[in-house]
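Hey all, quick one. A colleague (J.T.) asked me to put the adenosine-5'-diphosphate job into the tracker so the inputs and the structure tokens live in one place instead of scattered across chat threads. No bug as far as I know, just bookkeeping. Sequence used:
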Amino acid sequence: MNPLLSIDDLTVEYDVGGKTLSAVAGVSLTVGKGETLGLVGESGCGKSTLGRAVLQLRKPTGGTVTFDGTELTTLGSEAMRLMRRRLQLIFQDPIASLNPRRCIGDIIAEPLVIAGVADKAERDRRVREVMVAVGLDPDNALGRLPHEFSGGQCQRICIARALILEPELVICDEPVSALDVSIRAQILNLLEEMKRRYGLTLLFIAHDLAVVKAVSDRIAVMYLGKLAEIGPTERLFAQPAHPYTALLLEAIPVPDPTVRPAANVAVGEPPSPLAPPSGCRFRTRCPRADAKCAAEVPQLREIGGGQFAACHHPLSA
Ligand code: ADP
Ligand code: MG
């Protein structure tokens, strides 16, 4: 597999009232060209921070982000500005991410203006083209304001804006979480269709496994700033290796009968990232935890078939 994106030992810290919060604590992963990697984990585990750090919207504290052979963390601001056209972000809250005072046509055209496409006729042509691609009627929608649209339509507008510069990598940060359940499938289908049409590579962030199952080639599971497990979607669903992955699978409302049930996995709130547990960060909620888990940070190890888990006592071993 030819990685388009490669993240190595990425660390992102926030200063919270003089204390260091390690939101991303040494994450390494790759996303192959044309691949969709799902990134899941509970709210607060660092998914958005990781996505923003890839785009250098939040400067990493350590580690590297390599996109198509270029290391981004050391790139100058002008070079990064040019690079940003190739990497785009779609946010969770489509309505909040659209300027309420600008018409849809201007919102979608804005990346072209910033990229220096001076020819107005050319911009109009491309705006109309991408609007049709995402299922919006240009003649009806171009002159309207965001508040005249539903959440699902606003997400279509955001997707059009993200795609107009024909990026190669799109980071979708919980793109359907804020939408009505009834229209989630439409937006997921649209993203799949756009992926095929534009040959995109996707990093698809969600807080539950059910959403990413249908769209992801591989899934990465994050817990308190670290990767717990990463592997091919089918394999991870059929035989989760990390007890945390098993917990997430159990939380899916209609369980897949082929999924092995994880006995006695602790529930409850994750610990604060300001004071993560020693050793394995998941040990305080894990029924398999022993002294080794408190003493040693588990490294990602291959379980087999491209599935890796950071666990001293993996389930499928
Ligand atoms: P997720 O997207 O998985 O819900 P986030 O990346 O938003 O997680 O947050 C990871 C951790 O970093 C959380 O504990 C959150 O409270 C903290 N955090 C996020 N953004 C900031 C910020 N700007 N300043 C301080 N802490 C932050
Ligand atoms: Mg988030």
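Adding what we noticed when we looked at it: The pocket of adenosine-5'-diphosphate (ligand 1) is lined by residues 14, 16, 21, 23, 41, 43-49, 273 (CB under 6 Å). The longest helix spans residues 181-198.
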